[in-house]
TrEMBL record:
It comes from the Bacteria. It comes from Noviluteimonas gilva. Residues 9-168 form the Bacterial bifunctional deaminase-reductase C-terminal domain. One of its GO terms (biological process) is riboflavin biosynthetic process. This is Dihydrofolate reductase. GO terms for molecular function: 5-amino-6-(5-phosphoribosylamino)uracil reductase activity.
Length: 181
């Protein structure tokens, strides 16, 4: 089986929430704000793995944001129809099984998105790169980026970048400390 890489590129409030409790992303800058590496990142991946709640939120966008990249939606229920031109497939199962199936199909670099999906892949030790962009706002509650862990997940800081709008982006390698996942 071909080795597969999985990365996260996500925006959060400074207090660590990816979305409001109802899934709203209204605190994020319109259109993603100023350029901060997303276009380069999305060009580096060959497929996305997202949760069904994230899929439902993205369906409400004015435009499908992933072009013709394959999007695998983790769900045990049927999905709402994808927009014309979108390549969407429903999958279910454990993160390790999903990663193995996608690697067997020739995918090499996955973009993991959605609160529970990111948490599931992190707990399974499948994320290698984590890029978190903090938006200068506190929202108090919502969908947390991180959840409970069975053990510490060690990160190696790669870079921190700041942008004129106040965005602060930190990039980490996951589990590269000797003796840790």
């Amino acid at each position: 089986m071909t080795a597969i890489r999985a990365s996260v590129f996500v925006g959060t409030s400074v207090d660590g929430f990816m979305a409001r409790a109802d899934g709203a992303l209204d605190f994020l800058p319109p259109g993603g704000g100023e350029p901060h590496g997303y276009e380069e990142f999305i060009a580096s991946v060959d497929a996305l793995v997202i949760g069904s709640k994230t899929y439902d939120v993205v369906l409400a966008f004015d435009q499908w944001p992933y072009g013709d990249k394959p999007v695998f939606v983790l769900s045990s229920r049927p999905l709402r129809d994808a927009p014309a031109g979108a390549v969407v497939e429903r999958m279910s199962g454990e993160a390790s099984d999903i990663a193995s199936q996608l690697a067997a199909r020739g995918f090499r670099h996955l973009y993991i998105d959605g609160g529970r999906t990111i948490q599931q892949f992190l707990r399974a030790g499948l994320i290698q790169r984590l890029i978190v962009t903090h938006v200068p706002v506190l929202i108090g509650s919502g969908v947390p980026l991180f959840g409970p862990l069975d053990q510490d997940i060690h990160l190696t800081h790669v870079a921190t970048r700041q942008y004129a709008s106040g965005l602060v982006q930190s990039e980490y390698r996951v589990g590269n400390e000797k003796g840790h996942r």
